[in-house]
Amino acid sequence: MNSKYNIVSLIRKKRDGKVLSKDEIRFLIDSYTADEIPDYQISSFLMAAFLNGLNDEESAALTESMLHSGIVVDLSHVSGKKVDKHSTGGVGDKLSLILAPIVASAGVPVPMISGRGLGHTGGTLDKLESIPGFYVDVDLARYKEILEKQNLVLVGQTEEIAPADKRLYALRDVTATVESIPLIAGSIMSKKLAEGIDALVLDVKYGSGAFMKTEEDATKLAQALVGIGEQFEKETIAYLTNMKQPLGYKIGNWFEVEESIDALKGEGPEDIMEISHLLSGTMIYLGGKADSVEKGIEISKQQVENGEAFQKWLDIVEEQGGDISYINNPGKYPNADYEFELKSSEDGYISEMDAFEIGTASVELGAGRKVKEDDVDPQAGIVLKKKVGDKITKGETILVAYTNKPTTIEPVTAQLYGAVTISDTKPEKEFLVTKVVDKNGVRDFRL
């Protein structure tokens, strides 16, 4: 180990609210990645950083150290500006499955490395793996090959990409240090910068179903993410999106693939279509295929209408081993053994649908993980029949839940009843998107 620094002194320094230098942070990350620092000491550093924060320079140093703990992929052989999108996680958020083929079909290369679900939020990889045969674990050579051939690749984090982040995230998850804006920002950006992108679009969610519960905290996270992106000379644009209720109508891995298929055919729910086209349009703009976000949105809609986006989806599913017969005929997918309905006990309007409670209910049904080792059931999930603002009558179905775990039905039914509020008056409609953050700062944005 480099004797230039003493680990205990560095922990004490951050514990006391002092600023660590770039070299000191690099020493911590490099030493931990090389197994020269035990988990208990780096955990102490993480807690000190969680409690006292990291300034902009420390955040950038942490990101850079994690970025360079592994390989930074060189995609210079792939023509065009490479653009990716990242979401901070939500319930019913299947947007990556929709926008990636839209953007790729418009001529912008999309190298997308995604994660698995943990807690109440779903993961893109789990959704992809619900498609029979679809494989997400590829080496870097195959990653580059698929991207060059299809203009798109949808895979998981390889061992070579930001290994320090992978280890640190596992520690943060079990030491109650996940909800730290600098640590979240460093984790997200180290992976994204390592995958070989030129620009990035961020979907930063807030509300009951998001990690950031308030718009204020989401704004801070968006600013941190954009700041890091710009420091590394990657044009970065973030949108703040509302996650107080689930996105779309379907929650659960195969159910979300089904809704993605509908969206790629232009038949998805209004909220899904609007946000998908906004994010896709922004990616198309950053990829140099449109001279404005508005023009990019037009192109995004065009790619759906002319069928090219859906064809790209078929192409990438087949390229990565998936059985496209299920994409062309989603109805052939087997159903879960058990289903049950949640019915309204009164007349009125749906005034609230707690996305967090609905997300955790879907996990109980088998659609997600309580711990990382849990298996995910692609058939489990929830299909909403009503959303916030909808009128409902006594006895009418609010949602249908599906599971292969019959012992969950009774407790989940009670949980779901507690997640839905019915009022006499129709609630005011909330905006799906409220702010945009880029190198020029924070601006109101209404969608």
Task: Describe, in plain words, how this protein is organized in 3D.
The protein has 447 residues and is an alpha+beta fold. It has three domains: 7-53, Transferase, Pyrimidine Nucleoside Phosphorylase, Chain A, domain 3, CATH 1.20.970; 83-328 and 432-444, Pyrimidine Nucleoside Phosphorylase, Chain A, domain 2; 335-423, Pyrimidine nucleoside phosphorylase-like, C-terminal domain (Aldehyde Oxidoreductase, domain 3), CATH 3.90.1170.30. It contains 17 helices and 14 strands. Strands 1-4-5-13-14 form a five-stranded mixed β-sheet, with helices on both faces. The chain has a four-stranded antiparallel β-sheet with strand order 6-9-11-7, with helices on both faces. Strands 10-8-12 form a three-stranded antiparallel β-sheet. Helix 1 (7-15) packs parallel to helix 3 (39-52), helix 5 (95-105) packs parallel to helix 11 and helix 12 (270-286) packs across helix 13. The longest helix has 17 residues, at 215-231. It starts with 6 loop residues before the first helix and ends with a strand. The mean pLDDT is 94.
